[in-house]
Amino acid sequence: MLIILAGLPGSGKTTLAKALARRLGAVHVRVDTIEQNIRNAGVEVGPAGYMVAYGVAEDNLSLGHIVIADSVNSLTITRRAWRAVAERQGVPASEIWVKCSDKVEHRHRVETRVSDVPGLIKPGWTSTEARIFEDWETEPLVIDTAGRSPEQTVVDLISALQIDQDFIAVQEEP
After folding, report:
1. Span 7-19, mean pLDDT?
2. Where are the beta strands (DSSP E) in the chain?
3. 3-class DSSP assignment, residue 130
4. Is 3.40.50.300 the CATH number for 2-160?
5. Sorted alphabetically, which keywords does the UniProt record give (predicted)?
6. 8 Å CB contact between 80 and 42
7. In the predicted structure, residue 6 carries a pLDDT above the cut 60
8. What gap in Å lies between CA 84 and CA 24, rounded to an integer?
9. How many angstroms separate the first and last alpha carbons of the chain?
């Protein structure tokens, strides 16, 4: 399964992706990490970060892993490309739009978070608020993180995705 997360910076995508990956034993593919490491190599990023992420995701899907794709994913072209990765591997894709409906909470997150990727400069509130999402071609599952713990959000997302609880129990065994 390919779980495709999309959402504005500070919406809770990466927190959710990490918690979900731990819970499911899934592979977390984070475009921010890939793009920053390309920058650290002194190379212009352009579309390279997403192209690398698609390849890493596809390799891991071919090995039978659940993959969680973590990126802003605001463009139709990137969402199509993620779905194409799943199609080529013959696995289901679930598009999740992660939102924080509480503007005060969202702004606080954006303005106070610390980057865990060396060298990555997080966008500020002005650029986050100005970001536009192109229309969705498919109907994403919307997850609101406002006022909720990552753990509760993960439980709700697993339920919404109808991931088998027996599968999760196997992944959590020591």
Report:
1. 96
2. 2-6, 27-30, 67-70, 93-99, 141-144
3. helix
4. yes
5. Kinase, Transferase
6. no
7. yes
8. 23
9. 23
